[in-house]
Design a protein that fits this description.
With 1014 residues, the protein is α+β, with helices and mostly antiparallel strands. The chain has 19 helices and 48 strands. The strands form 12 sheets. It has a 10-stranded antiparallel β-sheet. Strands 21, 22, 23, 24, 25, 30, 33, 36 and 37 form a 9-stranded antiparallel β-sheet that branches. Strands 4-5-7-6-11 form a 5-stranded mixed β-sheet. It binds zinc ion. Zinc ion binds next to loops.
Length: 1014
């Protein structure tokens, strides 16, 4: 009875409503409109931009914790999205960051997964970009960009059998040539969209209607890598007033219920038409795109879709413009269907400034320690994958998966860029460390299996226990620091991840002076002891405690340096024993101290390369290579930029130097404090020059007997801030090269791009920031040249660099800042490290390498040595008792045919056309000799991220027309691979990706994916 009563009451209320609200009814909005020819088509592209860590960590963003920092929960976005899409089949959405999507996907029921698959199949939900994150484009190495994109693309392929076709780099702070041609065209993308280009460039492009271009990022591969590229008119948000996030202060919903106050349909339609016409004024053709969303939006997706439903309905009723649900794919196809020509864009979009004093060139160097860690892990990941392949994958549980995940996350445009909050930067490091530990087990295990048995496959529990030393750069390496009792041996296995034989000097810390190094045949190897200086020991103790959690117990006194020779993709073993007395292995050192009173120059360098130091002042002054007679003056110095705090600016233009922005207000040379002694340590393998520049800068310059470049190791920090001013430390190297404002910097470690000081090819540059506005991202290096010589500097991580004076190159090594730069991170970039009961500003240690060549000779060194920097020799240690020690079953190994070496110009870092006369020609790789013990069953050429066959990709990929006809000469590309000969041809700058089925000596057929590049 009670129920009956309720029914009657409801009925009554409904009747009453029916009388009052004559107009109120369920409204069906017509959202089915497609493109209409002859009208201005407004493509509404619903999207969310989900940073893979920034103010919160990736997991906090996903689950929506720590919301006092930022109210953001990606799980809510994806949860609310699906019902909103199901509510109307015309609604569309794009999703980008697979690090988030995969977190969500794996928790869904089979039913929900099925629903989502249907939404993907119908095109309502489209994956674009599709990498693990939206990677940064300045501080990233191209191998990392490929790896993180491949990781996402493979998941999308497996789960949905689709291949993303659009690049969507809407937030990174400037855009690289490698992004356009390699991570765009070579991935198979038809177009690429982004939000951030220089404000001066954007104004000119708006005026000329050239925001949308055909971008040809590669000189070598020229028109074959053209891609349609669109810069947005403002940013990646909707036009002002069309923002519909739930609870947002600025939202103006479309109110179309006449029974409520503030009915606004006509105003909203007028606003829409006005905003559309304004955008049409700066865009070619009658198609414009509205990016309907921004950071972490659609947490209540219905709020956006309901308003867009109404807008599409009423705007199309109005008829002045045509509004439609769209996607970047539909928009791209519409642009292509016009069959028009577009302006041609070459090179890149660096540096980026968003207003007059705001050059986003500080982040090229921000968090230099994290940047090095990412680079070290990248090289290690490459080596670990090779060892996993050689040993054969087994089910021991150790893989490289966690490292792959951590590295992919670290490529995000607030991660390796150094622009996240401190707790998030710590999270990136933690993930890398966890990934490293797993990969370290895999590496140790693989090496143990491989030295124990010639057929390592299937090996699970090897006897030998290898240890590695990730903190070797700060001279912390417990396995080598043990005092070798008589009869004990330290065995070092050295792995080379490069495709050619390599001879190098490695160094390990030791406590004992009397040591002998032998190769695996028992032959004594030349070695040299170098003292570990006090400054290094202090850093070692402090940082080892901070990172490992306990103070080191031993204290090594020397670096033991010795020469190793390691075959291609293989290893060699060396044995270190304590000698009864100091034998010939350790050559007595000579120490010179100049106190500034001597007038003669001091020469260092045991080989062809000679450096002269002026005794007065202790600077190096002359560079001379005996072999090729190249000579130049050379002077290196340090200075710092004082960071502007923005206090003198109008409140409107307030701009401090910060994590993103480099805004100096003065430059101050650093003069050594008093008479700084220069200590020279000479030896048979190398000479070292030590300079304690001041209380926070220490420098060691090394000249090797067998190398023709200078290695500089700097230790910088803590940068003093006691005068309340942030500082950005740079080093300058001055030569006598007449560079005439011109220098060259790499793009993501690959091509070199010509830069001219105070000049941009695309517009007439107004110079407001002569230092910051001439900074470029450096991943591999930079160089300058004149008619005789070229001067190159290569780096060990991404940094900012420039040439602000003719003949001079400048690198920014470290920055410590006290103000936020107003771009959202909300923290000053003031990194500190706590240990031993105190906290100090971060000290950074690193290396750069420099060399002067005659004109035309430098490219070879930049390419081959750059590759050695990326893939340093991997060292693993094990201690053995003298009695038990027998030689390893397999003391040396090469993964390829021992008589084969990859051609000189086949490497991972490569050359561009005309760069080097010998090396920029087509090269061949013989696969049979690359996989000597395996049978190649099948070989398939794939797209760069291996998610589709290359031929299929070529067939599908849209061809665009540029207004400026591009070079019509045939673009050199390697031809198809003959299945009998199995020889892969590589043209200059080409990267080819193959999936190869191998069998025979392996238990089961195994598929191996290989990127080969020239
Ligand atoms: Zn972002």
């Amino acid at each position: 009875m009670k129920d009956m009563a309720k029914f009657e009451i409801w009925f009554l209320i409904l009747m009453v409503c029916g009388l009052w609200m004559v107009e109120a009814k369920y409204m069906v909005y017509n959202t089915s409109q497609g493109i209409v020819a002859g009208k201005l088509n407004v493509h509404l592209v619903p999207h969310t931009h989900d940073d893979v860590g920034w103010l919160k960590t990736v997991d906090q963003y996903y689950v929506g914790s720590n919301n006092s920092i930022q109210g953001a929960c990606v799980e809510n976005v994806l949860d609310s999205l699906i019902p909103a899409l199901l509510a109307d089949k015309n609604r569309k959405f794009i999703y980008v960051e697979q690090a988030f999507f995969q977190r969500w996907w794996r928790n869904q029921s089979p039913r929900m997964q099925n629903t989502v698959r249907q939404l993907v199949n119908s095109g309502q939900l489209e994956f674009i970009n599709g990498g693990w994150c939206m990677h940064d484009e300045a501080a990233t190495h191209y191998i990392d960009m490929i790896d993180q994109t491949t990781l996402g693309h493979n998941y999308i392929k497996q789960q949905f059998n689709v291949t993303p076709r659009i690049g969507w780099q809407i937030d990174p702070f400037g855009h690289s040539a490698v992004q356009a041609y390699l991570l765009g065209a070579e991935v198979g993308f038809d177009s690429l969209f982004f939000g951030r280009i220089d404000y001066q460039d954007r104004e000119k492009r708006k005026a000329e209607k050239s925001l949308e271009v055909i971008w040809q990022g590669s000189k070598s591969l020229s028109s074959s890598t053209q891609i349609f590229a669109g810069a947005f008119p403002k940013n990646y948000e909707p036009p002002s007033g069309f923002y519909f996030e739930v609870n947002d202060n600025s939202a103006i919903p479309v109110q179309d219920d006449v029974n409520l106050f503030d009915y606004n349909v006509q105003e909203r339609v007028n606003d829409f038409v006005a905003a559309a016409l304004s955008q049409a004024n700066i865009t070619r053709s009658n198609h414009i795109m509205w990016t309907m969303g921004t950071d972490f939006k659609y947490q209540y997706a219905e709020s956006w879709f309901k308003n867009m439903d109404k807008l599409i309905h009423y705007v199309n009723q109005d008829g002045r413009v045509n509004a439609l649900y769209s996607s970047p794919s539909i928009y791209t196809d519409a642009k292509h269907a016009l069959d028009e020509s577009w302006p041609l864009k070459t090179d890149d979009y660096f540096p980026y400034a968003d207003r007059i004093n705001a050059y986003w060139t500080g982040y090229f160097t921000s968090r230099p320690a994290l940047k090095l860690y990412v680079r070290m892990m990248s090289g290690y990941y490459l080596a670990a994958r090779q060892l996993e392949f050689f040993k054969g994958r087994s089910d021991t549980g150790t893989t490289t998966e966690l490292l792959a995940d951590a590295l992919a996350i670290a490529q995000h445009h607030d991660a390796v860029s150094g622009t996240s909050k401190q707790h998030v930067a710590d999270d990136y490091s933690k993930r890398l460390f966890i990934g490293y530990k797993q990969a370290e087990d895999l590496v140790s295990n693989s090496l143990a299996c491989m030295v124990e048995s010639a057929s390592a496959s299937g090996c699970k529990n090897p006897q030998i226990n290898f240890k590695q030393c990730p903190l070797l750069n700060i001279s912390y390496c417990p396995p080598t620091e043990a005092d070798l009792a008589p009869g004990k041996k330290l065995v070092v296995v050295v792995y080379n991840a490069l495709g050619w034989k390599r001879t190098d000097v490695v160094r390990i810390p030791v406590v004992n002076k009397n040591v002998i190094v032998q190769d695996s045949n028992g032959k004594e190897i030349e070695s040299q002891l170098l003292p570990i200086v006090k400054a290094s020991i202090a850093i070692r103790n402090y940082y080892a405690t901070a990172y490992v959690g306990e103070s080191p117990t031993s204290s090594p006194k020397y670096w033991l340096a010795f020469t190793v020779t390691v075959p291609a993709l293989g290893f060699s073993s060396y044995v270190i024993t304590s000698g009864k007395q100091a034998v010939s292995a350790s050559i007595p050192q000579t120490f010179y101290k100049t106190d500034g009173s001597q007038s003669d120059a001091v020469e260092v360098g045991p080989g062809n390369l000679k450096l002269s130091y002026s005794a007065n002042g202790g600077k190096f002054t002359q560079y001379f290579n005996k072999r090729n007679q190249v000579r130049s003056s050379l002077e290196q110095s340090f200075s710092y930029y004082s960071a502007d705090d923005g206090s003198k600016d109008d409140w409107k233009d307030l701009q401090a130097s910060g994590a993103y922005v480099f805004r100096p207000n003065g430059s101050f040379p650093i003069h050594p404090e008093g008479k700084v002694p220069v200590t020279i340590i000479r030896g048979s393998l190398l000479d070292e020059v030590h300079q304690n520049i001041n209380s926070w800068i220490y420098q060691i310059t090394r000249v090797y007997k067998e190398k023709e470049h200078i290695e500089v190791e700097f230790t910088v920090g803590p940068i003093p801030i006691d005068n309340g001013i942030g500082k950005e430390l740079v080093t300058q190297i001055q030569t006598d090269i007449k560079s005439n404002k011109t220098f060259y910097t790499d793009s993501n470690g690959r091509d070199f791009i010509k830069r001219i000081r105070d000049y941009r090819a695309d517009w007439n540059l107004q110079v407001n920031q002569p230092a910051a506005g001439n900074y470029y991202p450096i991943n591999l290096g930079l160089f300058l040249k004149d008619n005789n010589n070229e001067f190159s500097v290569l780096v060990d991580r991404s940094v900012g660099g420039s040439s602000l004076v003719d003949g001079q190159l400048e690198l920014m090594l470290h920055r410590r800042l006290l103000h936020d730069d107003g771009r959202g991170v909300g923290e000053a970039l003031n990194e500190t490290v706590c240990a031993l009961g105190k906290c100090m500003g971060l000290t950074v240690q690193g290396k750069y390498y420099m060399r002067i060549d005659s004109l035309g000779e430098g490219a070879k060194w930049r390419r081959s040595f750059g590759q050695e920097i990326y893939s340093p020799l991997l060292l693993a240690f094990t201690e053995q008792d003298g009695d038990k020690f027998t030689k390893f079953q397999v003391p040396t190994f090469t993964g390829i045919d021992p008589s084969y070496s990859l051609p000189d110009n086949v490497a991972i870092i490569t050359l561009q056309v005309d760069e080097d006369k010998d090396l920029s020609t087509t090269a061949s790789v013989e696969l049979k000799r690359l996989f000597p013990k395996r049978k190649i069953n099948k070989i398939k050429e794939m797209s760069l991220t291996a998610n589709q066959e290359r031929a299929e990709m070529e067939k599908k990929r849209i061809k665009w027309k540029a207004e400026t006809p591009s070079d019509l000469r045939d673009v050199p590309r390697g031809g198809p691979v003959d299945p009998k000969k199995l020889v892969v041809e590589l043209a200059p700058m080409e990267i080819r990706t193959f999936v190869i089925d191998l069998s025979q000596s392996l238990p089961a057929a195994e598929s191996w994916k290989s990127h080969m590049s020239l």
